[in-house]
Amino acid sequence: MNNNTIVKVLIVIIMILSTIIFWKDKSISSFKNIIDVVSHRVEEKEVIRKGITYEKVIAITFDDGPHPRFTPKVLDVLRENNAKATFFVLGKHAEWYSKTLLQVKEEGHEIGNHSYSHVDIKKSSEEVIKSEIEKTQDIIFKITGESPRLFRPPFGFYSEKLLNVLKESEYRIILWTETQDSLDWNHPGVDNIVMKILSNAQNGDIILLHDYAEGECEAIEALEIILPELKKRGFSFVTVSELLELDTQGD
Which one of 33, 62, 102, 246 is most buried, by most CB atoms within 10 A? Predict the structure, then answer.
């Protein structure tokens, strides 16, 4: 049973229950509360945090690049470990460092949209959100010849406004597995990044790292430890789209 079918079944079940509650209590507010629960659960289904759990695959993702100093070093480590990853790029950085973005694409990695200026989705209008996404999409297409189909909202924030903007597009909203936020942007130290990821690694995880952060990029040194160890444990590395495709094949 695929995700869409599960959502539809869930909606039918909850709608039936909501009707019963409505007629029992004769309460408009009770009915509205149930509808709010349905809307929230449907919204949750539109946000991806994890992939399949029946295969030993992991998706490594990077935010906020590209950066000419850090991203090539990340690519070096990925290449040495025969690992593919997904890079959620900022439009302004792609615009400034187009050669680095093109290198990401040429080395076989996936490129996703992370907005143009790291906009706060919760505080932005639909018009601003749409502009940020479309401007970044146009920049990525101009540089790589491909349009991204994955969007990661800055800070992991999403809202009804974002869903409204994306509902007519092919974009899927990608976050990360709750236990796999490395917090590397906050410079916790390489050892802490490594421990956080390796101690929580499970099938289908989407790991969050950054190929740009103010100061040093601790993800580079951490990757040199994380990737070989995960390989020893039998994991292989896929892009987010490959992870989602495996989920489809398993239905």
Answer: 62
